[in-house]
Design goal:
Largest sheet: 5 strands, parallel
CATH topology: TIM Barrel
Number of domains: 1
Number of strands: 12
Number of helices: 13
Structural class: alpha/beta
Oligomer: single chain
CATH architecture: Alpha-Beta Barrel
Order of helices and strands: HEEEHEHEHHHHEEEEEHHEHEHHH
CATH class: Alpha Beta
Distance between the termini: 18 Å
């Protein structure tokens, strides 16, 4: 039986939801940073700019650590704690994938990066951290960053303190060793006029190249000599990202294809359907979830719950915090239950390391992780791992899965025979 009845439900002030994304993502920085202002940081040198139009070919690891470039990164072989994807057997029910992702990924004074690493390990979960490249650059090197359509050193967010850069590097290293993915949230977080939506493919290419450079040259740019290299080759690790304010996906995808990227998570919203590709790149959008006690839908990102509870006020009425936390948790769980008991389409949840409304959105996400990740058939994975699994499947099987409504649960033994 088809369950498209939900499809016609009115989205939570759809225009406002999208405005909420635009208004809110520039507020992502925390832990001693001022939201929405300040200079950006550092740049990619021209000598190692990518001009080959693709990723490096896969190498056969010789069992040794190979320090790369200036010592900022290294090739240490296959990533640990990552399972090899398996092809569905005929008649087998698909796993229920859940992807928790974090925009910015700075270890600030609130230590939310390190906290959620521990929560993930406790709940058999792995995640995607969309690292903002300029968070690895000191203020003294701000003018090295050459943002498209802006002056060198400009940015819409503040850059990190030296202490936060060091702490973030430690967390990025540990996160990758845990099996998590290090994607990109790009650099200067420009939205609206002269932001990503106005950038050409060539300008997006420049922004991407600088995202690589910030990670590959953090030792040169910071001068830190007491920290070890990151344990991955970023040319191999970086295969996808999420654009600031979810703007500019069309031209971003054109640029991303030159780098061999495998997915993009910059779509501003869609229903809970099995993913498809755009320009041969997997499209992993934020999703519309059933908002509790209503017929409305809300985008699966913390800011959108905030916007529909206290507007753009990040310090709303404390008397409502408990209620808002429950509404947020239940909204995510509504989306989970719909597909877990239905089509098994992946659930995508986007987050920021923030303390909005006393941190209730962080607590709600933690509640969800604890509730779902250990359930039978559930796999809480990174976007990269999901792309690996999708690529391992029979395209005809995936095409059939895409015909399902979110709440539609077929007889799997015959549907995928």
């Amino acid at each position: 039986m088809s369950n498209r009845t939900w499809y016609g439900a009115t989205a939570l002030t759809t225009a406002c939801v999208l405005v909420a994304v635009v208004a809110g993502l520039s507020r992502e920085d925390s832990g001693g940073r001022e939201a929405g202002g300040g200079a950006a940081a550092a740049a990619r040198g021209g000598a190692d700019a990518r001009t080959d139009g693709g990723k490096k070919p896969e190498e056969v690891w010789d069992g040794k650590v190979h320090v790369l470039g200036d010592g900022s990164t290294s090739f240490t072989g296959p990533q640990p704690n990552v399972k090899k994807p398996e092809k569905l057997k005929p008649g087998e029910k698909p796993p229920q994938f859940v992807v928790f992702s974090w925009d910015g990924a700075l270890e600030g004074d609130d230590h939310l990066f390190s906290h959620f690493r521990e929560v993930a390990k406790q709940n058999n979960a792995q995640m995607t951290f969309f690292l903002t490249g300029m968070y690895l650059l000191p203020k003294s090197k701000a003018t090295l960053y050459k943002p498209p359509q802006h002056k060198p050193g400009d940015a819409a967010i503040s850059f990190a303190t030296d202490e936060h850069i060091r702490d973030t590097l430690k967390q990025v290293r540990g996160a990758w060793l845990d099996g998590n993915e290090i994607g990109t949230h790009f650099n200067g977080h420009f939205c609206g006029t002269k932001g990503g939506g106005d950038w050409s493919p060539a300008e997006w290419k420049s922004e991407i190249e600088q995202s690589y450079s910030f990670v590959e040259k953090w030792k040169t740019n910071t001068g830190y000599k007491d920290l070890p290299p990151l344990p991955f080759d970023y040319q191999k690790e970086l295969v996808g990202g999420r654009a600031p304010c979810l703007e500019g996906q069309k031209n971003l995808l054109t640029a991303a294809k030159e780098f061999g990227w495998r997915y993009d998570a910059s779509s501003p919203g869609d229903f809970q359907l099995w993913p498809s590709k755009i320009n041969d790149i997997w499209n992993f959008p934020l999703q519309l979830l059933p908002y509790p006690k209503s017929e409305k839908q809300v985008l699966s990102m913390d800011f959108n719950f905030l916007f529909n509870q206290s507007g753009d006020n990040t310090k709303g009425d404390p008397a409502k915090y408990a209620e808002w936390r429950k509404l947020t948790r239940d909204g995510y769980l509504n989306g989970f239950e719909r597909v877990y008991n239905g089509s098994r389409a992946p659930l995508f949840i986007g987050n920021h390391f923030e303390d909005w409304n006393d941190g209730i959105y962080m607590k709600a996400v933690e509640d969800v992780m604890k509730s779902v990740c250990k359930r039978d058939g559930v796999r809480c994975v990174s976007f990269k791992q999901l792309a690996d699994w999708l690529d391992a499947q029979d395209p005809k099987v995936l095409a059939k899965l895409r015909t399902l409504d979110p709440a539609q649960s077929p007889e799997w033994s015959t549907f995928l025979k």
